[in-house]
Amino acid sequence: MRHPRIKICGLRTPEAVDAVLRHGGPEVGFVHFPKSPRHLSLPDMAALRAYLGDRAAVTIVTVDPDDALLEAIRRDIRPDTIQLHGSETPERVAEIGRRTGLATMKALSVHDAHDIASVASYRGIADRLLLDAKAPKGAVLPGGNGVAFDWRLLAGLPAGLDYMLSGGLTPDNVGAALRQAAPPGLDVSSGVESAPGVKDIHLIDQFFDAVLAASQPLEGRRAS
Ligand SMILES: O=C(O)c1ccccc1NCC(=O)[C@H](O)[C@H](O)COP(=O)(O)O
C-alpha cells in the first residue's frame, strides 16, 4: 500500500498549520461554514492562506456555496480544491468545476451499501470524492462530527477510485482503517482536536506517526 495522502481539516491557526507542515506539508483544509467551530471568515482565511503560502495544497470546505462565494474564494484564497459538503448535485459539481477552474472534491455521506452505490453518479465529474460518515440526527454540521462509518462498506467501491476516507478517524483507529480499507487518502478533523475547533499539536503528531507505522509494514510486505 502506498502512503495515503493526508488532509488535516479545519485548521484555524498558524501553530496548527506548522504542526501539519512538520510532517511534510501534505494537504490542509479550511472550513467556511458559519455554524462550525472551525469556521474562518474570508479575511481570516486569506491571512492563514498567506501564512501557509505554497507549502501545502489547500482545500476549502463549503456547503452548497453560491456563485458569489465561490468567486470570492477563488479570487481571495486561491485554493487548489473546493470541497463540496452539502447536497450539490452532479450537475452543480460539474458547473462549479467549470466556473472556478478549481479541482472539486465532493463529500458523500455513507451509512449503508446504497450510499456506496451513489458514488457512481459523481465518478468522473468530481475530481475526487470524500467518503464521510452520515451526520447524526439533529447534528448542526454536515461534517466534522467525529463519527465513523463501517469501513467494510468500502469493499464495494469501484477499483481505482480516487477518494479520501473520512469521519471519526483518530490516532488510535487510523491504523485499523488503513489495514482494512487501504484508502488512497485520509481526512481528519475532530480526532486531532482537544475541543471542537481547537487543533491539538500532539494529536496531529500522533496521527501522522500512526499512519506511518501502519503503512510501513504493508509497504515492506508488498516489496518482498
Ligand atoms: O469540520 C467542520 O466543521 C465541517 C463543517 C461543515 C461541513 C464540513 C465540515 N467538515 C468537513 C471535513 O472534511 C471533515 O474533516 C470531515 O467531515 C471529518 O470530520 P471528523 O469526523 O471530525 O474527523
Automatic annotation (TrEMBL):
Pathway(s) this gene product operates in, as recorded in its UniProt entry: Amino-acid biosynthesis; L-tryptophan biosynthesis; L-tryptophan from chorismate: step 3/5
Enzyme Commission number(s) from the entry: 5.3.1.24
Domain N-(5'phosphoribosyl) anthranilate isomerase (PRAI): residue ranges: 6-209
Keywords of this entry: Amino-acid biosynthesis, Aromatic amino acid biosynthesis, Isomerase, Tryptophan biosynthesis
Stretches that traverse the bilayer: none
SUPFAM superfamilies cross-referenced by the UniProt entry: Ribulose-phoshate binding barrel
Matching InterPro entries: Aldolase_TIM (IPR013785), PRAI_dom (IPR001240), RibuloseP-bd_barrel (IPR011060), TrpF_fam (IPR044643)
One annotated GO molecular function: isomerase activity
Reaction catalyzed: N-(5-phospho-beta-D-ribosyl)anthranilate = 1-(2-carboxyphenylamino)-1-deoxy-D-ribulose 5-phosphate
Protein family membership: Belongs to the TrpF family.
PANTHER family: N-(5'-PHOSPHORIBOSYL)ANTHRANILATE ISOMERASE
Protein name (Swiss-Prot/TrEMBL): N-(5'-phosphoribosyl)anthranilate isomerase
Organism from which the protein derives: Aureimonas altamirensis DSM 21988
